[in-house]
Amino acid sequence: MLWHIMKMFGTHGFNDFIICCGYRGYVIKEYFANYFLHMSDVTLDMSSNSMTIHQKHAEPWKITLVDTGEETGTGGRIKRVSEYIDGPFFLTYGDGLCDIDLEKLKSYHEEKGTLATVTSVQPAGRFGSLEISESLVTSFQEKPIGDKQWVSGGFFVCQPEVLNQISGDSEVWEEGPLRSLVQNGELSAYKHQGFWHAMDTLRDKVYLENLWDSGDAPWKKW
Q1: pLDDT number for residue 40
Q2: Domains of the chain, first to last
Q3: Single pTM value for the model
């Protein structure tokens, strides 16, 4: 998921990343520490203990991996990486994929002038929708889009001032900070009507993997 999300950002020219590591963060660090090796053709000469790199396929990414603790809240993790943030920044959870135009999201955020902008989406409902009148079904719609509700798609653009809304490690981004931004009229909503899907369950994982294997994944713009 991290790789796919980073490829999404890289496609739009955003190549500087900060990853908030927690549980099994060492796996993420090892993956990116060896990323150049994974993505290149190499010859290993065991007799001379040398390695020759042939074709190079690694992306032009700059990645800062920060150990933010296993029990730290989502807001606390952002606070812990504040020393690496020196201007407006994108923020995402790492559990959702979409075909959003990130440059348009950034421009929208700048236009609105609020401290933060959240991408709002209408995910497909899991079940068929029924309208009932006097025990008779008057309308049926199979898995209606979003059940007419807009929800957070998890892709934000934030001004560095939002860090002041976070008190410490235990802070949950979705509770104190976001609610404070809403109360102060500092959270804009960018409506994305294209593809979006979260990976919260095994069912989601299989669905997204099948889309990728089909060669027609909506989020693949590279």
Answers
A1: 83
A2: 2-44+52-213 (3.90.550.10)
A3: 0.85
